[in-house]
Design brief:
The structure is a homodimer of 493-residue chains. Chain A has 18 helices and 18 strands. Chain A starts with a strand and ends with a strand. The first copy, chain A, has helices at 23-29, 67-73, 91-99, 106-117, 123-136, 140-152, 179-188, 207-214, 221-231, 245-254, 262-274, 296-312, 334-345, 353-369, 376-388, 391-403, 431-440, 476-483, and strands at residues 2-9, 18-22, 36-41, 44-53, 62-66, 81-85, 165-169, 193-197, 233-237, 280-287, 316-323, 331-332, 414-419, 424-429, 450-453, 460-461, 466-472, 490-492. The A-B interface holds A 9-15, 20, 32-35, 51-54, 57-58, 64, 67, 92, 95-96, 99, 101, 122-125, 127-128, 131-132, 134-136, 252-253, 255-259 and B 9-15, 20, 32-35, 51-54, 57-58, 64, 67, 92, 95-96, 99, 101, 122-125, 127-128, 131-132, 134-136, 252-253, 255-259.
Chain lengths: 493, 493
Amino acid sequence: MMSFKPKRIPIRVGHRYVAILNETSAEKLDVRASERIDLFVGKKELTAIVDITDNKELKDNQIGLFAETWDKLGVTSRNTIKVKVAPKPQADQHIKEKLEGERLTAKEMDIIVKDIVNDDLSDIEMTYFVAGCFTRGLSDRETADLTKAIVKHGGKLTFRHKIVMDKHCIGGVPGNRTTMLVVPMITALGYVMPKTSSRAITSPSGTADTMEVVANVKNDVDTLKKIAKKAGGFITWGGGVDLAAADDKLIRVRYPLKLDPQGMLLASIMAKKYSVSSNNVIIDIPMGDQGKVKTKKEANVLKKRFLRIAKLLGMKMKVVITSADQPVGYGIGPLFEVEDIMKILKNEPGAPEDLKKKSIMLVTELLYLTGKYKFKYQAKKEARAVLETGKAWKQFQKIVKAQGKKRLPKRGEHTFVVKAKKAGTIKSIHNKLIANIARTAGAPQDKGAGIIIHKKIGDIIKKGEPLYTVYTENKTRITYVKKLQYRKAYTIK
Amino acid sequence: MMSFKPKRIPIRVGHRYVAILNETSAEKLDVRASERIDLFVGKKELTAIVDITDNKELKDNQIGLFAETWDKLGVTSRNTIKVKVAPKPQADQHIKEKLEGERLTAKEMDIIVKDIVNDDLSDIEMTYFVAGCFTRGLSDRETADLTKAIVKHGGKLTFRHKIVMDKHCIGGVPGNRTTMLVVPMITALGYVMPKTSSRAITSPSGTADTMEVVANVKNDVDTLKKIAKKAGGFITWGGGVDLAAADDKLIRVRYPLKLDPQGMLLASIMAKKYSVSSNNVIIDIPMGDQGKVKTKKEANVLKKRFLRIAKLLGMKMKVVITSADQPVGYGIGPLFEVEDIMKILKNEPGAPEDLKKKSIMLVTELLYLTGKYKFKYQAKKEARAVLETGKAWKQFQKIVKAQGKKRLPKRGEHTFVVKAKKAGTIKSIHNKLIANIARTAGAPQDKGAGIIIHKKIGDIIKKGEPLYTVYTENKTRITYVKKLQYRKAYTIK
């Protein structure tokens, strides 16, 4: 045990406690950068990660404490801090085992996640864990155990209802905003559906971005409980809810290399469901040349993994494989997607039939999953009715109100219409290019930026008819769009 | 490009340039923690790694610069700093490829090492590289390419001599201090031998620790050049020479999990040889139940890897497989090992025959490797002669003088003699336990602490005769030694 005088380093470094020693003190303590030391002041105790500076910066009897470490210990410069090397986190051994190709037990996974959540692991150690999961893979049991551990060492939202509904789509298809229809439909039927959604990373809009056009999506756990009580459900931004702390920390180290170990992705998805007590879940896997999943075979492998993990978690699950061949609906970008949804909910003319049909299918499957219907057509009838009678629309307004209603923005005032250069039939639509054009137009940051597509695969088109219209809030963005290969978004034959 | 006013964070964080933004600025710049930004002030430009703090700590127009970043840019608080997101380091893609199991080309390996040396990679990225090498392995070509890259982006010591000798032992055997005999013998014969050695990590002494008993071992490159000119060679601490910067940085991220990817270990060894221009190298692989390498098969696999990599680097190499069954020599611990070496060099009675014989064998092989001898016995004759005529002893003194002679310390004054409980023949000696006892006695920090063993395998012993003597500088350490299973160090049958 060595004693030091504290020196405050007037800055917070975020997401960890850091203490700085000079080279001489570090050598005496036999501690290296990124290792941990235990700090003691009076009855307070804190484990901090060590950084090492040269002897000019700190005296041998000084320890530098970053603002959060200083505050957490509640010290003043007159205090003396006792320091000893902290034992290695238990997680280290199991992380090494994973790198060596071993399977981890539930207990070992729990130890790792606990150490992550307690900030007991450095970036280096967390990175090794991600690398181990990436290169060696996670079995279904490991994935279920990781999910449980994430939820155990995070928060959990519970409901008194027996059935808690949820859905997830693996993404990759522009305009595919079924969540904003499924949640009001399901909750209008009296079920609870606490849906957390993500923002766009590389797409023109995530469900959270689109929902944000009409309602507030940054809600903490207590607020969400109140909203669920009022409206039976919500559509909120998952990143704003602090339910899966370990997952957030792992995503941070996955980010630099954009590493997506499949087991970790699945655990991340399942933890979001498990942490809101969902037990009746539908998974949508869009499949096709342009999808994240390319082939039927691949889709079936993923489907089976989902089902096995759900079983291990005690969840009922239905997995549907859908088409990733073209955008769903007409609007792409936050506001335009909202417009599609409103038309469907209000049974207005011009509502996109494909988005409506898909949402009814998803709701049907969810209802049928409960086991309350003898035949699927009965569930389908109910799903269609809740939409067409306007009940879902009422429910949508209720949810929006509970989350905090927003005023609709205007469509971007600058437009660019792409017209057919020849007559024929639409053979294909290039999803990635469409997404890229919408992002270049300003989506999702500019809520009123995006695309309305006028034609779908199989539609017949005349020469000069509009294929799609780009909307931007900022005129120069049209110039950027024109630099893209915007003509290649459609193939006409 | 955004503009900020700099705020000095009065501390150095070592081994990297760090800048801090508040959450709002980071979001505006679309940059995350551990990503890089380019900083511009006047004509100066610097890439820094981003840390993110909350909005209370920094204003939206402020950027926090740690001391080394502040100094490197030479700013004052009146400057304005222009900031843009730096392009991703090229290395990232290749690191990801390695994690995915691909082989890296020489060019790709070079890009990774260059980015490491330039501090362009965060701990997270370097850790992924180590994890990729660990889980996917490195081929011999990749290992050679990594070696070349480490040396290219480090320093290199060159000599006008055609032949530059070197040796390496993979370690694991207490007392095995052949380097301190081989270097004077080889250099006495007119060859250059620039030997860098390591300190103990888990053993009672490394060659650098033992050499440090008689001479200074912390020398920079310029000093080493002078020493080599004067004495034809040196035995210096590799950690004090800044020739393989990339290797040092990789070791730092390998340390927390004690990960030793074989290819990386080999590249680390070979880079030490390659960076001092060695082209005639002998490798010693002690093999046996107690060794790092357990079986003949394992030893042969490693031997072949060494030879193939050497070939790719244009080095002549001989690999010998030796015994790891018991300590070499009598002394264990810095001073006691020096005593053995001096007795051999001075041809004094009581010199350990095994250490002498092994050193002559290594020198013979090195001489024969040059191709200057038709028969090996000729080389052996010369090796023996240089030792027995006292030429090597003279040469040893010359090297010691060139490096800076030290006064010999005294033996630890407190001793503990372990005696045989029965008569019989020595069947085995427990290397790890012997090493542990010597470390507990204070080696290598206390130069006069350690063990002298009195009996070797095959020796006949009477009841009550001493097996080994423990020396300590600090009496309480004897108590600690007595708590170990010191009786189990020898098996008598």
